[in-house]
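sry for the spam today, last one i promise. struct tokens for design, 73 residues
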């Protein structure tokens, strides 16, 4: 039981760390602090620029935090 709790704690911390890192990446790319990432902002990250259209689920030309969360890079 103790090992299960330790494993769950480690897993939870890992997810929290990944989410925090993703938030920091989003904030760094959102240079105009609009709350979205435009295609011109995405150009600063090659892999993001390449995936931009596929990630832009609502096709509004901007990535929300939800859309950015699907970025594989």
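last one done:
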């Amino acid at each position: 039981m103790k090992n299960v709790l330790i494993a769950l704690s480690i897993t939870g911390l890992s997810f929290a760390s990944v989410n925090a890192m993703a938030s920091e990446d989003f904030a760094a790319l959102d240079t105009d602090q609009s709350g979205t990432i435009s295609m011109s902002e995405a150009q600063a990250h090659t892999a993001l620029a390449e995936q931009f259209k596929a990630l832009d689920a609502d096709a509004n030309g901007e990535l929300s935090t939800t859309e950015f969360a699907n970025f594989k890079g």
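Residues 47 and 73 are 6 Å apart (CA to CA). ok im logging off now
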